[in-house]
Amino acid sequence: MRQLPEADRDAIRIAQDPQFTRWLGQLMATGGCAHPVHLSGSTTTLDATTGEILRHYDTRDEPGERLSVRCRNRRATVCAPCSRLHAGDTFHLVRAGLIGGKNVPDAVRHRPRLFVTLTAPSFGPVHRAGDDRCQPRRDRTNCEHGRPFGCGAVHDTDGSLVGQPLCPDCYDYTAHALWHAHAGMLWDRFVIGVRRHLASSAGLVQSRFAERARLSFARVAEYQRRGAVHVHAVVRLDGPDGPTDEPPAWGTVARLTDAVRASASRVVVRTLHSPAVGELALRWGTQVDTRPLRADGLGPDDDAVAAYVAKYVTKGANETGAGTDHKLTNWADIDTAPVSDHVRSLMRVCWRLGGLPEYEPLHLRLWAHTLGYRGHILTKSRAYSTTYAALRAERARHVGHAYIPATITERSWRYVGSGHTPGGALLAAGVAEDIASNRESARDEIEAPR
Ligand SMILES: [Zn+2]
Ligand SMILES: [Zn+2]
Ligand SMILES: [Zn+2]
After folding, report:
1. pLDDT tens digits for range 283-329
2. Could you give the 3-state DSSP secondary structure of residue 78?
3. Pairwise CA distance, residues 192 & 199, whole Å
4. Pfam families, from UniProt (predicted)?
């Protein structure tokens, strides 16, 4: 026994616990979460009229007198099981808004729906690969820093130079950081602009738009190689009541496409005046992609779109090479962050600008690790489809365990810790692996007949 590694000895200790079955039940209920949160407390459900106790749950009866719940981290590098679950929820959330299900009517698949990609503008030339690859310039001129304007090299798609500026001194890091800090506002104004363009194309006064139609969306942010965020979004047009309501006759795919293009090209956000920086006018990049999602199966597949969007929510900033997963607290953190020189320069400019009083509301230091971008990875409008909370509640009813019910009348809970002992971690990893491989074989069965 003493010769076994500590984790194994600990796992054996746990397995000998008289409450091991219940212990394993908790592990299963958290899906083998790598960093579970432990709670202590009780829930009592009373009959509202008689005062009779209908249900009583107390962690005193649980192993270790505590209940473990998932950490729910979306990043695969932090907790693989929770990340998979989150990606699955995102998939269902996006899919329900495309083809119905989860209390969304199937009729949404016949509504005008677009898959839209909006990009950041150029902040200076960067090395590129693929169709858009680096091109030598015929005039062979250099910038004021003595670096060539063009590049004749052919880079591999995953080459380390791709996304790095041709001249870091010419690259507009200030504009890049400030654009990130205003990307959420740019999106909000873009949506307002789409509504406005739709209204005017239908001959409506803007203020009447909400009485005739409703615009819903789910969007996800992705970091490109140059460290700039771009946005993929599903945009759908319904009647005024949302998913249950038919859009008006004028609400066509063509009109929606025109409105998206017009709004993306015209929307501007002006930064607050700064003595150091001046005032910038921030816009979307000129590359705007709008793809109609057709109910007849021609064009992009709905499931593929939902899977594409879900994929991005599991990625942390460090996985995409654009930032780190943890916040930066000082200059030394930036100096030692495992990132490219280009990303480090962006972090530095975020830190520097974050120290200016006029930019305080942008919280650039707090978000220097994500290069100034402080939006959520996934954002959706209320009427798009279901919610993460509803999906979790549905799953909890299905599993029927380890969920704090919604109908409680009296409850008291407190946090008592988090994480596994070495042996617990070993067992949790085993549970997570089982669940993952079961899910994979279930998926194989579904996909095989195609
Ligand atoms: Zn977890
Ligand atoms: Zn190049
Ligand atoms: Zn230069």
Report:
1. 999 999 999 988 776 667 778 888 877 777 776 655 666 788 788 99
2. coil
3. 11
4. RepSA
Q: Which ligand is nearest to the CA of 36?
A: 1
CA 73 to ligand 1 centroid distance, Å: 6
The answer to whether residues 411 and 304 belong to one domain is no
* 70-90: average pLDDT: 84
Question: How many domains would you assign to the chain?
Answer: 2
Higher pLDDT, 78 or 358: 358
Q: What is the distance between the alpha carbons of residues 47 and 53, in angstroms, rounded to a whole number?
A: 6
State whether 238 and 111 are in the same domain: yes
- Please give the pLDDT value at position 240: 94
Range of the domain at 180: 80-123+172-380
Q: Is residue 322 part of a domain?
A: yes
Ligand number with the minimum distance to the CA of 225: 2
- Tokens standing for residue 240: 């005024």
Q: How far is the CA of 362 from the centre of ligand 3 (A)?
A: 28
- Cβ-based neighbour number of residue 311 at 10 Å: 14
CA of 150 to the centre of ligand 2 (A): 7
Ligand 3 centroid – CA 124 distance (Å): 9
The answer to whether residue 162 is domain-embedded is: no
pLDDT tens sequence across 30-77: 888 998 888 888 878 777 777 778 888 888 888 888 888 888 887 787
- 3-class secondary structure, 170: coil
Residues lying with their CB under 5 A of ligand 3, a single-atom ion? 143, 145, 167, 169-170
Lowest average pLDDT, out of 43-47, 234-238, 361-365, goes to 43-47
Identify the nearest ligand to the CA of 152 by its number. Answer: 2
Residues 331 and 401 in one domain: no
Cα-trace Rg, the chain: 26
> What spacing in Å lies between the alpha carbon of 198 and ligand 1's midpoint?
43
Q: Which residue has the higher pLDDT, 64 or 114?
A: 114
Ligand 1 centre to CA of 30 (Å) is 8
pLDDT at 316: 63
The rounded Å distance from CA 161 to ligand 2 centre is: 7
Q: Do residues 310 and 422 both lie within one domain?
A: no
Is residue 220 in a domain? yes
Whole-model pTM: value is 0.81
For residues 274 and 353, membership in a common domain is answered with: yes
Domain shared by 21 and 96, yes or no: no
Mark whether 232 and 328 lie in a shared domain: yes
Beta strands of 17-157 (E only): which ranges?
37-46, 53-58, 67-69, 113-118
